[in-house]
Write a structure and sequence with these properties.
Number of domains of chain B: 2
Number of domains of chain A: 2
Number of helices of chain B: 11
Helix content of chain A: 25-40%
Number of helices of chain A: 12
Distance between the termini of chain B: 20 Å
Strand order of the largest sheet of chain B: 1-2
CATH architecture of the largest domain in chain B: Orthogonal Bundle
Radius of gyration of chain A: 23 Å
Number of strands of chain B: 2
Structural class of chain B: mainly alpha
Largest sheet of chain A: 5 strands, mixed
Shape of chain A: globular
Strand content of chain A: 5-15%
Oligomer: heterodimer
Largest interface: A-B, 57 and 50 residues
CATH superfamily of the largest domain in chain B: MetI-like
CATH topology of the largest domain in chain B: MetI-like fold
Distance between the termini of chain A: 83 Å
Radius of gyration of chain B: 29 Å
Helix content of chain B: 55-70%
């Protein structure tokens, strides 16, 4: 008696489904997807009036200045003064960690009521970047504390209204957060060859770290194609570097302290000294829906930096205790590494350099996006009263 | 399809006595005989079976096809955001392009290798332990509590342990699949061997079967169908666990493809990975079922026309 064997039936089903999909694909090739192209409205259509802001005469620096000795823009403490919104506005901010030190201006700003002074009700949510990005694009999240990673650029390329509106920090001169290599016998830091070595990373080649990492690799006879990247969890990076699982790794604050001074390891380089690589991303709600709230958010953020993070903020023990409280970190642990240089400005050309690194790493496709489709400096310019 | 019932007059003598019929006045009243015409299934069982199979097959194809078309329509009409939920046509076009460019196969092959290696190891070990524990009471007493305790540990939680044991590479992935598969096969084998009817064992003993003959002619044929059910369930779970594991600690494979494309906000590529995993899971599971049917022709079929 004839029977249809189950495997044959499964294959038949698969072939039919592939046939349906194939037909659809053929149709798809003939029609353009109107929602999948373009780069969104993003930037505000009309420039908003910018008026000088008291206490912010030095609240702006030349974006093309990337020198390591550059002093970040600063207003006087307490400036720019609050300009409360007409009604209380809720702003949802996502971050992939709530304990990282670079997040301190946001956390302290909330704790000290700087956002409340603007009539902003800020809710900070812990969300991994890949999960938060679609929510930012859809408007479920208003602000993402992240970086212009390859995913963000891919999202903008797909037409989502997302812009990088403020920077975050540059490392302090004494910081050794960055690329560390395990030295082989007889090897020196200058003579390390990274070719064919395994590199441990937290995020992968789509992270902004790819940009400084490429610089380090090229200085050590390697490039992104000649090393093996091993994606690891935060807890495994240092352990893998120590037990030989990886030959090099990007170590964050304060993890690098554990190998600093050990002759078996060498610091090969870190984030560029004068160039923030991350910060605040706005979604459509603040970019076009309620730009007043967007400016108010950055005003509060910048005021927090000027008031609490203007210089070496870790010198003040009382403030260090406050910082430890909001970041849920021991103050001594925070004090073990130098203060970050908080910097809300975005340097000119950073996006171009990042895109070049991403293209080399093969994590973005298509032509590079022009900077004005990724960066919007108008929010912090308005907050500090500077006409670019 | 049910046969039709027809009321037909019939001589009383030909009628089967019905309730109360004995009280009738003999020959004075006509008896009504209910005749059920044979249905198509009885008149032409082969044709009826083919027809039913055709309907089943049509449903099996039409339902997914209708869902895919609905999804396509939703994307085209912008009921859903096709940038976040790409249309099936976009997924198919992207998958085809990746396959044509040779970008897809390394990930498929990496996952397949891990699944096959882990599945083979886990099945062999699970069958051996299940057989021993099902057949030997002392072995069961010694190992069952320990294995029961390990069974409830989420297998993905063992990945860091395997990373420490085997380092970075294929070892942790294969070990994770093998461990997952082991428990499914072990439990089904042990239960199957313990469930072999005492009469079968006694028959073997009466014929003087030694341990090997008892295994070969009694335990194996009696337990294999149930063991194969466990192996088929394990086949699906093996794909499931490797995809989860590749998202955490691998540089290739379909799980890594899904995770990586999600990290890069490439939703179309992510869905290509998801579709590939689904196809891989179905094909692998059906392959195990197919092999199982060939190995156990005596077993009742779990799908389609029952054996006569």
């Amino acid at each position: 008696m004839a029977r249809t064997p189950s495997l044959a039936r499964a294959l038949l089903t698969g072939v039919t489904l592939l046939g349906v999909l194939g037909s659809l694909a053929a149709c798809d090739a003939q029609t353009s997807d109107s929602t999948g192209t373009g780069t969104g409205a993003g930037a505000r259509s009309k420039p908003r009036p910018i008026t000088p802001v008291a206490g912010c005469a030095k609240g702006w620096t030349d974006p093309s200045d990337r020198s390591a000795a550059r002093r970040p823009a600063r207003c006087e403490p307490g400036a720019p003064a609050p300009k409360p919104l007409k009604k209380k506005t809720k702003v949802v901010v996502s971050a992939s960690t709530l304990t990282a030190e670079y997040l301190a201006p946001l956390r302290i700003g909330v704790a000290k009521g700087e956002f409340s002074k603007e009539k902003l009700d800020v809710e900070v949510k812990l969300l991994p970047t890949p999960d938060a990005l679609p929510l930012l694009a859809k408007g479920d999240v208003d602000v993402q504390y992240a970086a212009p990673e390859a995913a963000v650029l891919n999202g903008i390329r797909q037409g989502f209204d997302i812009r990088w509106v403020a920077g975050n920090f540059t490392p302090a001169p004494g910081s050794k957060s960055g690329f560390w290599a395990r030295l082989r016998p007889g090897e020196t830091a200058e003579g390390v060859s990274l070719k064919d070595r395994t590199v441990g990373t937290l995020i992968g080649k789509g992270s902004v770290i790819t940009y400084p990492m490429e610089k380090v690799l090229s200085a050590h006879k390697a490039d992104v194609d000649s090393v093996r990247f091993q994606q690891l969890g935060p807890a495994e990076v240092l352990a893998s570097l120590r037990n030989g699982g990886v030959d090099a790794a990007w170590l964050l604050d304060p993890v690098w302290r554990q190998v600093d001074g050990d002759a078996g390891y060498a610091f090969l380089g870190g984030q560029p000294r004068g160039e923030p690589l991350g910060g605040l991303l706005f979604g459509p709600d603040l970019l076009t829906g309620d730009p007043d709230a967007g400016v108010a958010f950055l005003r509060a953020y910048i005021r927090t930096v000027n008031t609490y993070f203007a210089g070496d903020y870790k010198k003040d023990r009382a403030f260090l205790d406050d910082l430890g409280d909001v970041l849920k970190t021991e103050p001594d642990t925070l004090a073990a590494v130098p203060s970050l240089r908080m910097d809300w400005e975005i340097r000119a050309g950073t996006v171009d350099r990042l895109q070049k690194a991403y293209a080399t790493a093969g994590v973005v496709e298509g032509d590079p996006l022009p900077e004005d489709q990724v960066v919007d400096r108008s929010f912090y310019a308005e907050a500090v009263g500077h006409k670019p | 399809m049910k046969g039709e019932n027809t009321a037909a007059p019939a001589p009383a003598a030909a009628a089967r006595p019905g309730p109360g019929e004995g009280e009738q006045d003999g020959g004075s009243a006509e008896t009504t005989l209910l005749v059920r015409r044979p249905g198509p299934g009885e008149r032409d069982p082969v044709r009826a079976h083919r027809r039913r199979r055709a309907i089943e097959l049509s449903l099996a194809l039409a339902v997914p096809a209708a869902l895919i078309l609905l999804w396509q329509l939703a994307a085209d009409q912008r009921w859903i955001d096709s940038r976040i939920y790409p249309a099936p046509s976009t997924i198919a076009a992207d998958g085809w392009q990746r396959a044509a460019d040779g970008k897809l196969w390394p990930d498929v092959w990496a996952t397949l290798k891990r699944v096959i290696a882990g599945y083979a190891l886990g099945t062999a070990a699970g069958y051996l332990f299940g057989l021993l524990m099902g057949a030997l009471r002392m072995v069961r007493a010694a190992l069952e509590p320990l294995l029961d305790a390990l069974y409830v540990v989420p297998k993905l939680a063992l990945l860091p342990v395997f990373l420490n044991m085997f380092g970075l590479g294929e070892g942790p992935q294969i070990a994770l699949v093998a461990t997952t598969v082991f428990f499914f096969v072990w439990i089904s084998t042990m239960a199957a061997v313990m469930g072999v009817a005492e009469g079968h064992r006694e028959a073997g003993a009466v014929f003087g079967a030694g341990p090997w003959q008892m295994f070969r002619h009694v335990l194996l044929p009696a337990s294999l169908p149930q063991v194969l059910v466990g192996m088929r369930v394990a086949a699906g779970v093996a794909v499931l666990v490797i995809v989860a594991s590749e998202q955490i600690a691998a540089n290739d494979g379909l799980g890594h493809l899904i995770f990586d494309s999600r990290t890069l906000f490439q939703n179309d590529v992510m869905f290509v990975g998801i579709v590939c995993v689904a196809v891989l899971g179905v094909v692998f599971s059906e392959l195990v079922r197919f092999i199982g049917r060939r190995l156990t022709p005596w077993a009742p079929r779990d799908r389609g026309r029952p054996q006569s």
